[in-house]
Amino acid sequence: MPQSSSPSSTAATGSRERRIVILISGRGSNMQALVEACQREAWPARIAAVIASRPDAGGLAWAAERGIPTDALYHKDFATREAFDAALMARIDQFEPDYVLLAGFMRVLTPGFVGHYSGRLVNIHPSLLPAFPGLHTHAQALATGVRAHGCTVHFVTPVLDHGPIIAQGMVPVLPGDTPERLAERVLDVEHRAFPAAARWLAEGRVSLTLDHRVEVQGDPERLFIWSGA
Question: Is the model's pTM score more than 0.90?
Answer without folding.
Answer: yes
